[in-house]
Amino acid sequence: MKILIGCPTYERYEYCIDLWLKAVKKIIEFSRKEGHEADYLLVDNSKTQDFYLKMQLKGANIVRSPYVENVRQRIMDSRNVLREKALRERYDYFFSLEQDIIPEEDILVRLLNQNKKIISAYYSKNMGMRVQDNETKKINDIVLELPIVYLQQEGGVKRANPHEVLRKGTISVGAFGVGCLLIHREVLEKIKFRFERGKIAFDDFLFCLDAKNLGYGLFLDSNIKVNHLHRPWDDIKQD
Description:
This protein has seven helices and 15 strands. It has 239 residues and is of the alpha/beta class. It has one domain (2-228): Spore Coat Polysaccharide Biosynthesis Protein SpsA, Chain A (Alpha-Beta Complex), CATH 3.90.550.10. An eight-stranded mixed β-sheet has the order 3-2-1-4-13-6-14-11, with helices on both faces. A hairpin with a 6-residue loop joins strand 7 and strand 8.
């Protein structure tokens, strides 16, 4: 199989770029030993060229995508650069691997072995919260694990709890992020990444919606849990 690994990026991901590049190199080497042809591309949509030039100095395979103020459009445009490359250069799959996801070297082979058109590994983000104990009235600081996975329910989807979707094998779900998502070219031929002005959904959720509307299943290999080096988007206006 021929697989393109990639994601949109910009300067805020400088904190994890070296880890990502190292992980991707290992993924490519491992996949080739298993008979697959894999390479990667980053699409930088930063406001200036500074980050792009830094990545070039590191030897990264990176291209520029035009900067626009609307963050959802920026991400969509960059993701479609990857989609177009995958289709134009006859890749069998696009492996969407976000900059802050650091998986093991066998991740791609394990997902390919599932033989699904759309399949994700499990990842989550942690959220700190303060809660009050109903009995003692004491305030406690806790950390909640929030899977980037949604379960189908009547009338829509709901965010999953870890116990519902982790270590459950390969399961069908209602939606997920594209942080660690393998997509077959057949799907890419039919679906272009998009967003809708005036709505809060990003292109990942709309991709899942479009795929389901075309009859594709959304599968999660919940036995593969990957490391997510998430940092809040406090500095971004999500218009």
